[in-house]
Structures are given as structure tokens and as C-alpha cells.
Amino acid sequence: MKSIHRFIYILALFVSLPFPVLAQVSDERTRQDAALQAGGEAEDIENPLYTDGDVLQFRLALDYEALLKDRGDERGYHPATLVYKNAAGEEEAVKLKVMVRGNHRRQTQTCRFPPLLLNFARKTTKGTPFEHVNKVKMVTHCLNEDYIHREFLVYKAYNLLTDKSFRVRLCRVEYEDVKSKRKEETKFAFLIEDDNEMARRNKGRIVPKELALGMEGTEMKSMATLAVFQYMIGNTDWSVPYRHNIKLLSLDSLRAPYPVPYDFDYSGIVAPPYAIPPPELGISSVRQRLYRGYDFPEPVYAEVISTFKAKRAAIYDLYRNFPYLEKSTQRMTLKFLDDFYEIITDPKDFDRQIVRVGQKNQKGYVVVKGLK
Predict the structure, then answer these.
(1) What is the pLDDT confidence band of residue 2, given thresholds at 50, 70 and 90?
(2) By CB atoms within 10 Å of each CB, which of 44, 102, 174, 176 scores lowest?
(3) Which burial class, exposed, middle or buried, applies to 127 when counting CB atoms under 10 A from its CB (0-12, 13-18, 19+)?
(4) Which of 173, 193, 188, 168 is nearest to 324 (CA)?
(5) Where does the secretion signal sit in this chain (predicted)?
(6) How does pLDDT run across 209-258, given as a tens digit for each residue?
(7) Angle at 350 (CA atoms; ends 347, 351), nearest 5 degrees
(8) pLDDT value at position 241?
(9) Are 197 and 47 in contact (CB under 8 A)?
(10) Residue 14: pLDDT band by 50, 70, 90 thresholds?
(11) What are phi and psi of 168, to 5 degrees?
């Protein structure tokens, strides 16, 4: 019955939307249809760019002085060349365009080196590791490579919980300035699966932002899993109704969509120096956990807790076995995870820290100022 209500709700939204917004939604659907067709047979296979566990090494050559100055709202693409070694050990070059991306992290006061968007032309990538991609987000070292590893592992941890998640690939990038004005440097980075590619892999579509949906309009178990996961990593920097660091994945128009999170740099488990919680939330540090989900039925909570318990060893192994993580970070992270598992395995703590807070959120949700 709930699925029918959601369908009517979405239908009503379409009817009430003004024509320009409807046209925008239609354009987005057309774009996703094109992406599905472009994937062709690839929609039934895994993209080796993200299933290969090896560190992807390449050289990215362009005018970095021009790129790093172009961080404004009207920023553009810059021509670049990506050079990698094929299976025979021979160098191959791929032409592409590169743009600075992101919101907070593209600001000079936040990141010395901002995140990038790599834009490939499909006609130039056949037979390369980038054959099945078009636009790829690349998270760069910003201030320190250790934060790259921390955020990369958060994505990998969520992958353990569900396939309805963004996949990532760790990279080692040599940045070469074609103008020879900037010293070459080699740093870790990671690539993030494109929205439409993630949707295609799950045989679904991304719900347009114009269709307003809150937590109550999403698939219940996945929403509860996401909310508890965000609590685990100490992340309050997300919102379903504002689609802030959240995509909604629809597998069927008659069923509620699945929320898919991304961008975890403001979480306590990553904790870069620029990550400061908004004053509206009443916490002084991102290391201080605060549940931001709604309340869920007891059987749903029980199933979610069971999932987290079942995946505990695998999550811990991610941090214990990752060779590039600093030992001090590893110890700090495992202790942070210990604290979380103590809470979810103690019924009183779980009720106080999550259930009651979820009930309070459902009655009157605190909206962060920048999202209003």
C-alpha cells in the first residue's frame, strides 16, 4: 500500500511542477537513457576500472597554473594528457579535459590542491582502463595524503554493506606541468564511479533533484542502514530532501528509491582540519557522533544491527590490511569503530543515542543553515 502512495505522491509532484522543471527532469531522463545505451552490454558486466584492486598509476600532464587558478563558479575545462602503462609495460597516452570540481574543497582556503573532474571522449579510450567511463570524479590529496586514504576506506566500508553504493579506485598520480612552472609531484588520489554508471550497474536510474523526497519516502531498510552508517563514521554532512551528498537510486517507479551516500570528508573518521560541524547541531567536533536519521521500526533496527555485526570483521580488516594507512590513524580509527560497536550492542545505549534521537528528529528536524 505504501508503494502505491509513493507512486501517487511522485505523480502529483510531476503534475504540480512548472514546465521548465518538467523539461529539466525529462532532459535528465533522456541523458540517463543515453548513458544506458552507451553502456550497451557493459550494463551486465562489472567495470574493471573499479573491480581491479591494484593501485592505478598514471601521469596527468597539463597547465597546472591555469587549472589551479580556475576555481570559481564559472570555471572551465583545460586540455590534458593522461599517460599510463599497458599490460605490456608500454606507455600509452589518452587525451582528455580536466576541470576543478567540488564545493568546499575547491576553495583555496580549504585545499591546496582541489578535487578534479576528468572528462574523456569515448572515441579516445577504447582498449584503455577508461573505456567504459566518460566523466570521472577524482579526489586528490588536498592537504595530506592520509586523508585520501581515510575517505577511500569509508567508501570501501559502505561497499561491504551494499552494492547500492559508489565504487572507488585508488590511484597514484604524477602531476606534470606542461609549462614547467610547477614542480612535479606524485600523490595518491582515488576515482569515484559516475552516478549513472552506479545506477546502470544496479539496473536503475538516478531520481532527479527536482522530485522532492525526504527520508520517509525512501526504501526503509537501506535508509536505516545509511543513517546508522553515517552515525558510525561520525558524519552529519548529508541530507536526503536537499540531496546533499546523497543520490536517490530508483529501481522501479512503483517502489521507494534507495539513498546512496558520497563525500565523507566531513566525517569524524576522516576528520581533516577544515571539517567543523555546523553550530545548529550543538556538537563541537566531527569526532562527536550525532544521529541524523529518523526513527525506524524495531525489526528494521534489529536487521540493521545484525548486518553491522556480521560485517564488523570485514570492516576492521579494511583498516588493518590497508598498507598505506598511517599506524596512528589505524589505531585511532579502530578505537573510533570500537566505540560505535559498543553503542549498537548495548540496548540502552542504542536506545539513548539512536532510537530516541531519531524520534526527536522525526518530530522536528534541525536543518543546517546552508541547506535551507
Answers:
(1) very low
(2) 44
(3) exposed
(4) 188
(5) 1-23
(6) 999 999 999 999 999 999 999 999 999 999 999 999 999 999 998 999 99
(7) 85
(8) 96
(9) yes
(10) very low
(11) -135, 160
Rounded Cα–Cα distance for residues 372 and 363 (Å)? 18
For residues 241 and 296, give the distance between their C-alpha atoms in angstroms, rounded to a whole number: 18
3-state secondary structure of 276: coil
Q: How many CB atoms lie within 10 A of CB 102?
A: 20
Residue 192 and residue 165 in contact, taking contact as beta carbons nearer than 8 Å:
no
Instruction: Output the nine-digit C-alpha cell for 179.
Output: 609549462
Angle between the 145-161 and 312-321 helix axes, to the nearest 10 degrees? 160
Q: Which grid cell is 341? A: 560497536
Residue with grid cell 541547506, as numbered in its chain: 371
pLDDT of residue 325: 96
Q: Where are the domains of the chain?
A: 48-196, 204-363
- 117 in Cβ contact with 99 (< 8 Å): yes
Q: Give burial (CB, 10 Å; 0-12/13-18/19+) of 73.
A: exposed
What's the length of the chain?
372
**8 A C-beta contact, residue 133 and residue 141:** no
Residue 129 is placed in which grid cell? 582502463
- The dihedral built from the CA positions of residue 304, 305, 309 and 310, taken in this order, carries a sign that is negative
Residue pair 272/329 in contact (Cβ under 8 Å)? The answer is no
